Amino acid sequence: MSSAILGLGNPLLDISVEVKDLALVERYGLKMGNAILAAAEHAPLYAELVDTFGAPGGAGVQYIAGGATQNSVRVAQWVSGEPAGYAAYVGCVGDDAFGKTLAAAAAADGVTALYQVTADKPTGTCAVIVHEQERSLVANLAAAEALAEAHLDSAAVAAAVASAKVVYCAGFPLTHAGGAASVQRLGKACADGNKVFATNLSAPFIVQVRACARVRAWCGCGGEGPPALYPPAATGMKTRRRRRTRPVARRAPLPVRAPAGHINSPGAKTDASLGPPRPRGCRITRSDSNPKRSATQRDATRRNATRRDATRRQRRSATRRDATRRNGTQRNAIQRNAAQR
Questions:
Q1: Which residues in the chain come in under a pLDDT of 50?
Q2: pLDDT score recorded for residue 29
Q3: What's the rounded Cα separation, in Å, for the pair 128 and 125?
Q4: What is the pLDDT of residues 319-340, one digit of tens each?
């Protein structure tokens, strides 16, 4: 049947085992409740899990079709209640035993696996070590990062793209060139075909990796790591500290008082134009200095002042009443104590 849901991501074969102690975890320097990308010292871990806990199909190890997008596609197939093939998945695996196991696990969940098979890298795997209620994840992307945009031109994938109503891509494929180009191409196809295209950033490091790639492409410098590792002198970028500005409210200028008959600077007002002099110590408020202020605003100011005064009087009265009650209570207690004595 044609697929209504299509996903594209990094396929990983989850190798899940349950351990009784933390000897294996400590030997590889792992931590429970944590997830990391595999380093060189973690390379023997996957073979050790298979050899120690049993061959594929054994009771001691579970093989699960994993990867963020593939997990979502598997759940969508299960929730839909439709026959197998309602959801399809695109990714890249290696030409090895783990790749065949991954395809079989996806098919067992009813997902149509449209894998690109490469002989250059092994199938991506994720070691899942479970101890009691905690687990430790060690992911080795390997072939998952070898996805090529040209794989979308294959007949099976092209048919799945044409029949899909919803296309979902997590943010993890954006970390390699083939995945990023494939995600962009699927997004354009959905926009042209008026289909639903869903995505997310998946993890904070996705943004850092993409930003670092843009910096290296722009400045022509090499190396790995987040953009913070490249100082402005090395990248050629110019930095300038922005000055923080604060808005200043402009107030109407106060009139300048000059003696009557005195020749003052242009724009100065005399006593005659200002009216009778104010008493000493009287401030010139904004309302006095702005004769154009409406009577409505002045009335509103007076009403607000009246309300504030009334509120203060009420609070003082309540304070006095409370003090009177406390004093009366204390007097009554003193009298009762004296009567008892």
A1: 215-216, 218-240, 242, 245, 248-275, 278-289
A2: 92
A3: 10
A4: 888 888 888 888 888 888 888 8
- Please enumerate in sequence order all residues whose Cβ is within 8 A of that of 31, keeping only pairs 6 or more positions apart, or say none: 25, 136
- What tokens does 20 get? 């009784």
Give how far Cα 115 sits from Cα of 167, 211, 323, Å.
16, 29, 84
Give the span between the Cα atoms of 126 and 144, in whole angstroms.
12
Class of domain 5-200: alpha beta
* Half-sphere exposure (Cβ direction) of 117: Cα atoms closer than 13 Å: 10
Measured between alpha carbons, how far is 14 from 24 in angstroms, rounded to an integer?
A: 17
Q: Where are the beta strands (DSSP E) in 170-264?
A: 196-199, 257-258
Q: How far apart are CA 137 and CA 134, in angstroms?
A: 10
CA dihedral 114, 120, 126, 127 (to 10 degrees): 140
Q: Which residues pair with 118 in a beta bridge?
A: 94
Cβ–Cβ under 8 Å, residues 269 and 254: no
The predicted pLDDT at position 57 comes to: 53
- Give residue 256's pLDDT: 46
**DSSP state for residue 264 in the 8-state scheme:** -
pLDDT tens digits for 197-209? 999 888 777 777 6
The distance in angstroms from the start CA to the end CA of the chain is 101
CA angle 86-118-93, nearest 5°?
Answer: 40
Cα dihedral 212, 217, 219, 222, rounded to 10, equals 70
- What's the DSSP call for residue 160? H
pLDDT for position 122: 92
SS3 305: helix
Report how far residue 162's alpha carbon sits from residue 154's, in angstroms, rounded to the nearest whole number: 12
Q: What are the boundaries of each domain within the chain?
A: 5-200, 201-232, 304-341
Residue 148 burial (10 A CB sphere; 0-12, 13-18, 19+): middle
Q: Are strands 257-258 and 269-270 parallel, antiparallel or unpaired?
A: parallel
Spatial distance between the Cα atoms of 126 and 105, rounded to a whole number of angstroms: 14
